[in-house]
Structure formats: structure tokens, C-alpha cells
Amino acid sequence: MICLICRQAEIVPGSTSIPFERGEFRLLVNHVPARICPVCGEAILEEMTAIRLLSLVEGTLQDGLMDEVRDFE
């Protein structure tokens, strides 16, 4: 698949870090599986990965943690 942003390269399997912020809440999730463009760095997530990621974020928020770094599991 060609990168949807730069249209200059095929995206390749890899991982990325994704930050989330809501008010004073901050979370950085590392090692999120994604397809990465080697030219522009755009990361594209599979649907199930995005669903699991959002669930992790909501769980962290509900736990009352305000400033956290986690690995994607």
C-alpha cells in the first residue's frame, strides 16, 4: 500500500509511539504496531489495534493516573 499522506513510498510493518492528552491527563503508549511510511513517517494502525489502544487509554484514565508511559500489550 502506498502512503496516503506523501504518496512516495510503500508503507512497511513497524511500531510507533502515540501520545494522548485530555486536560491534565497525559499518556504515551510505546511500541504500538503500525504500518510506517519510510519517507514521511506517517503511522497507520489496523482497526483492532486502534480499538485496543483506545481501551488502554480509557482504562488508564479511569484508574486516575494523570501522567503515564505504557507499552502497548
Keyphrases for this structure?
Ubiquitin-like (UB roll); four-stranded mixed beta sheet; 73 residues; alpha+beta; 4 strands
Explain this structure.
It is a single chain. The chain has one helix at about 45-60; strands at about 10-20, 25-35, 45, 65-70. The protein is α+β, with helices and mostly antiparallel strands and about 70 residues long. The mean pLDDT is about 95. The chain has one domain (about 10-70): Roll (Ubiquitin-like (UB roll)), CATH 3.10.20.860. Helices cover about 20% and strands about 40% of the residues. The protein contains 1 helix and 4 strands, in the order βββαβ. The longest helix has 16 residues, at about 45-60.
What name is given to the CATH topology?
Answer: Ubiquitin-like (UB roll)
Helix percent band: 10-25%
Query: What's the end-to-end separation, in Å?
Result: 26 Å
Total helical segments = 1
Q: Averaged pLDDT, please? A: 94
- Number of distinct beta strands: 4
Tell me, what's the shape? elongated
Q: Number of folding domains?
A: 1
Note the run of SSEs as H and E: EEEHE
Poorly predicted parts: none
Q: Tell me what portion of residues adopts beta-strand conformation.
A: 35-45%
Main pleated sheet: 4 strands, mixed
What CATH architecture label applies? Roll
SS-derived structural category: alpha+beta
CATH class designation = Alpha Beta
